[in-house]
Write a structure and sequence with these properties.
Order of helices and strands: HHHHHHHHHHHH
Largest sheet: none
Distance between the termini: 15 Å
InterPro entries: MetI-like, MetI-like_sf
Keywords: Cell membrane, Membrane, Transmembrane, Transmembrane helix, Transport
GO biological process, one term: transmembrane transport
Oligomer: single chain
Low-confidence stretches: 1-14, 286-293
Helix content: over 70%
Membrane topology: Multi-pass membrane protein
Structural class: mainly alpha
Organism: Rhizobium redzepovicii
Length: 293
Amino acid sequence: MAHTTFEAGSAALFRPGTSDAEIEASALKAIRRRNTLVRFWQIAILVFVIGMWELSSNMQWIDPFFYSSPSGVLQRLYEWATEGTTEGSLWYNLWVTMEEALIGFFAGSITGVFVGIGLGRNRFLSDIFSVYIKAINSIPRVVLAPIFIMIMGLGLPSKVALAFIMVFFVVFANAFQGVREADRNMIANARILGASDWQVTRTVVIPSAMSWIFASLHVSFGFAIIGAIVGEFVGARFGIGQLISIAKGTFDAAGMFAAILLVMVVTLVAEFIMTVIENRLAKWRPQQHMDTQ
């Protein structure tokens, strides 16, 4: 709708007889120009923040002991990558955290989707379990880390359990709401045409809920990373959370920022991959065009 409105507004600026192809080309050019401007300001803000951080540290406007500096953070990352950390190879610690987060992410996402769709389609069961789900969801998930570590130990299972819990409720809530928001007219029409409950769920309800589900998946991987790192921070032998904990104990600000930067990069890469997958699986959706102003 926004794209059509933009084209109509652009068409009014052209002289009579301008072809549709010329109008479309002008609209696409304006969109590309806007995207370039957005990218420029994104990079400019990042460069400004990093530059001011470095300058403030070098000029002693901030205490580099507590705030470090971008050059100090990059130096620490280089040392970790080439010489390793006090807890072994940087890449091994990163892999430990990623393994915990990925297992928790996939297990929590799949379970959340199935439970959300199942309860969303069965009002009787949702009424029964809603009070328990609300009660468990009211618990701050990070406080479960000591309990999981006490029960499952310092290894992989306790971190996966925390990542699972962090992801499950986000995906479940969106899948459940997506099912409830499905178009009732389309469901009624499908039933009139003789569709069974499974056919209605597969062809109408699930496609309708996909936008909700993908929206939750975009943020849930970050929650999986949080779950894994918090678990490692509470108690672990390896992992990025353990590196942060050691850096905190030794007042190594550069080490803490280096670990945080590493997590940010990994999470952004995962977000990009998720966007690519969503675009491939949801080609049926109309593209969203933003106003150029």
